[in-house]
């Protein structure tokens, strides 16, 4: 059926697929996605599904064939182009499993364009499962309506990540020792938020950060926040002050 304001219904399942989408494409789903649509949602041939591929936007498809372990979907109409997300990066030191999963999920929901894990002197987590983190971001994107997934980088030492830092990208260092309120510092344009590990940054790292011309030390209030809370709070404040939570000027 053709897309209209009333179609597809709001309850239509929404999935990310790796396969490029276009009108007339046949998308074959297996494993967890086929199980979700077939066994959990009990979709039958003709049922609508929304798909996005992180490249061409969001598409309406319908179930063409519903097997026990395999679903085939026929792509019909493009519902929207790929969105433009604000140019905000999040540099965060890896923290323990569970908390880092929450952090990337919230980063995706709140609209971050790129997540860069940075290894610091007090980072205690030495391995990151990027596949698991990406799966959390995909789930968050499916749920929140994103059509563009955040990029997710391999972890890099902080010094390397900050080397040749572009002058035009404000580096917002969330500093529990104090700074200007983030809402006063944030302005539209390329930006990155830098969050330390559970133990914070060392004096040596603080000197390294402060030496970057684009760096601004900011406060997130008088309380010491956990790293994951600090990341979500900082992204939310930036989005409200400089990102796409603002109504476009009329
Ligand atoms: N080791 C520090 C201490 O005990 O004082 C706390 C580090 S905090 C758990 C982890 C990171 O969250 C910090 O490196 C900082 O980037 C950020 N953070 C936490 N609270 C903050 C605040 N009130 N203002 C700015 N950044 C904050």
From TrEMBL:
It is an enzyme of class 2 (transferase). Residues 29-73 form the Ribosomal RNA small subunit methyltransferase E PUA-like domain. The lineage of its organism: Bacteria, Pseudomonadati, Pseudomonadota, Alphaproteobacteria, Sphingomonadales. InterPro entries: Alpha/beta_knot_MTases, PUA-like_sf, RsmE, RsmE_MTase_dom, RsmE_PUA-like, tRNA_m1G_MTases_N. The keyword rRNA processing applies. GO terms for cellular component: cytoplasm. GO terms for molecular function: rRNA (uridine-N3-)-methyltransferase activity. This is Ribosomal RNA small subunit methyltransferase E. Belongs to the RNA methyltransferase RsmE family.
């Amino acid at each position: 059926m053709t897309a209209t304001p009333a179609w597809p219904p709001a309850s239509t399942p929404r999935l990310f697929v790796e396969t490029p989408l276009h009108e007339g494409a046949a998308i074959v789903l297996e494993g967890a996605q086929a199980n979700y649509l077939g066994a959990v949602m009990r979709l039958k041939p003709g049922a609508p599904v929304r798909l996005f591929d992180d490249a061409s936007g969001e598409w309406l498809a319908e179930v063409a064939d519903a097997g026990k372990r395999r679903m085939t979907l026929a792509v019909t109409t493009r519902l929207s182009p790929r969105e433009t997300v604000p140019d905000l990066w999040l540099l965060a030191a890896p923290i323990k499993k569970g908390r880092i999963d929450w952090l990337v999920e919230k980063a995706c929901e709140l609209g971050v364009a790129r997540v860069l894990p940075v290894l610091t002197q007090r980072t205690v987590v030495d391995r990151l499962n990027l596949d698991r983190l990406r799966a959390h971001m995909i789930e968050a994107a499916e749920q929140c309506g994103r059509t563009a997934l955040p990029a997710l980088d391999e972890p890099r030492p902080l010094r390397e990540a900050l080397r040749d830092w572009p002058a035009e990208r404000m580096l917002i260092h969330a500093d529990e020792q104090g700074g200007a309120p983030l809402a006063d510092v944030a302005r539209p344009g390329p930006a990155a938020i830098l969050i330390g590990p559970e133990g914070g940054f060392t004096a040596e790292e603080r000197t390294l950060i402060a030496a970057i011309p684009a760096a601004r030390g900011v406060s997130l209030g008088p309380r010491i926040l956990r790293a994951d809370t600090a990341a979500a709070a900082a992204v939310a404040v930036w989005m409200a002050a400089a990102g796409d939570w603002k109504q476009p000027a009329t």
